């Protein structure tokens, strides 16, 4: 543990170092993404990533804010084809290099879309706190000679529109804002008691499409993954996940599915994990978490050959909807990727903004020009619901 010179922030290199009273003072565990057991499951199972944590204190030395930061090696080849032009521009401007990794400090969850990097207690000056967090992150790096020489850039990720009036304070600290792929979000209507109510709410064209997917996927059987049976299934699930991750246009890192074991142990039925079987073979899986009144979809795995014949992915999307209805939740957060097919289910885009700053002043000015050209991939938004 380190203490900032201003004595307003504490820095920890492991969750185990954080005293229990801090979690009590923050009272942040209701949001699952700031529950210490959730954070620990990611730290424990990703030893290739350097994890650190910042806790801000008020004048009474009470914890009032928390930030989760990671340090990763970001490789240029993790950017796929639709980003290729920007990649070449960035390389030519010297902002990024194909020859060596960019050492990137990230505030946020690497593996989940959304505003999950910074927690601020109620009744606080949030603009002031986010400035303090940015300042203390830089101080944390500068206090470590090794990190000071290694870190190339700082990234704070995934702020929705409602948070931009606060997050834009980062611009005063030299950060540049840019838009990324949106989180696709479905509102669950209160009068939907079961999945048939959802089907009755969509237009005929989309209802026919849904019923066709359900017919094609009828041969699939679905099994709940538990802490007791997960070990048998993880190897095959990992292979299916890697196929999906390999097709992604952008990855900050590969998720270690061993994390699921800890999440199931800690959160039980609140962590959704199901496998899809065709006879005696796993052909897909879904994962997600119940966070307050939302079902947040996490990673999926798909056997793409079976997907064509048995509509595996479409079935998964409809199953997320049905689970949310059964649990009487208010929203399904489907996350990024495959935005068009998710919109055909009824999800609408929630725009997200990231903030990036290069350590070197000249490169940071060039970075601003580079980021102005970064735009989310356009897609054909569907409107399946009746008016």
Largest sheet: 14 strands, mixed
How many runs of DSSP E, i.e. beta strands?
Answer: 14
CATH architecture of the largest domain: 3-Layer(aba) Sandwich
Unreliable sequence segments: 2-6
Strand content: 25-35%
* Rg, Cα atoms, Å: 22 Å
CATH superfamily of the largest domain: Gcn5-related N-acetyltransferase (GNAT)
CATH class of the largest domain: Alpha Beta
Write down the CATH topology of the largest domain. Answer: Aminopeptidase
Helix content: 25-40%
For the record, the count of structural domains works out to 2
C-alpha geometry: globular
By helix and strand content, what is the structural category?
alpha+beta
What series of H and E elements makes up the topology?
EEHHEEHEEHHEHEHHEHHEEEHHEHEH
Average pLDDT taken over every residue: 91
Q: Span from first to last CA? A: 56 Å
What is the number of helical segments per DSSP (H or I, 4+ residues)? 14
């Amino acid at each position: 543990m380190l203490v900032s010179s201003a004595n307003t922030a504490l820095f920890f290199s492991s969750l185990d170092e954080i005293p229990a009273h801090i979690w009590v003072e923050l009272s942040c565990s209701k949001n699952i993404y700031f529950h210490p057991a959730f954070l620990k499951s990611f730290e424990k199972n990703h030893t290739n990533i350097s994890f650190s944590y910042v806790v801000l204190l008020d004048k009474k030395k009470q914890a009032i804010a928390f930030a989760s930061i990671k340090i990763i090696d970001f490789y240029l080849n993790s950017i796929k084809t639709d980003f290729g032009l920007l990649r070449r521009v960035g390389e030519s401007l010297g902002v990024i290099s194909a020859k060596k990794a960019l050492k990137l400090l990230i505030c946020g969850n690497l593996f989940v879309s959304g505003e999950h990097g910074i927690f601020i207690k109620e009744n606080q000056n949030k603009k002031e706190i986010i400035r303090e967090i940015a300042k203390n992150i830089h101080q944390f790096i500068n206090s470590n000679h090794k990190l000071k020489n290694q870190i190339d850039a700082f990234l704070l990720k995934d702020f929705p529109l409602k948070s931009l009036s606060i997050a834009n304070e980062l611009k005063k600290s030299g950060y540049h804002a840019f838009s990324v792929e949106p989180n696709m979000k479905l509102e669950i209507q209160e009068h939907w008691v079961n999945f048939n109510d959802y089907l009755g709410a969509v237009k005929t064209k989309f209802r026919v499409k849904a019923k066709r997917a359900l017919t094609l996927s009828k041969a699939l059987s679905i099994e709940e993954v538990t802490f007791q049976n997960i070990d048998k299934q993880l190897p095959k699930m990992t292979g299916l996940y890697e196929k999906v991750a390999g097709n992604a246009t952008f990855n900050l890192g590969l998720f270690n599915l061993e994390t699921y074991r800890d999440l199931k142990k800690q959160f039980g039925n609140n962590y959704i994990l199901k496998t899809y079987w065709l006879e005696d073979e796993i052909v897909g899986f879904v994962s997600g978490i119940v966070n307050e009144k939302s079902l947040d979809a996490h990673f999926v795995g798909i056997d793409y050959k079976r997907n064509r014949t048995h509509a595996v992915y479409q079935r998964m999307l409809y199953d997320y909807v049905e689970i949310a209805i059964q649990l009487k939740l208010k929203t399904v957060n489907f996350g990024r990727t495959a935005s068009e097919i998710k919109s055909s289910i009824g999800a609408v885009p929630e725009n997200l903004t990231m903030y990036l700053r290069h350590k070197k002043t000249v490169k940071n000015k060039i970075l601003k020009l580079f980021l102005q050209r970064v735009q989310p991939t356009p897609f054909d938004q569907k409107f399946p619901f009746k008016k």
